[in-house]
Amino acid sequence: MEELFTLLKELGYTIGSCESMTAGLFASTLASMPGASKVLRGAIVTYQTAVKTDLVKVDTDVIKRYGVVSEETALQMAVKARVLLGCDLCVSVSGNAGPDVLEGKPAGMVCGAVADGDRAVTFTLQMHGSRNEIRMKCVEEMAEQVKKFLQK
Question: Domain of life here (predicted)?
Answer without folding.
Answer: Bacteria
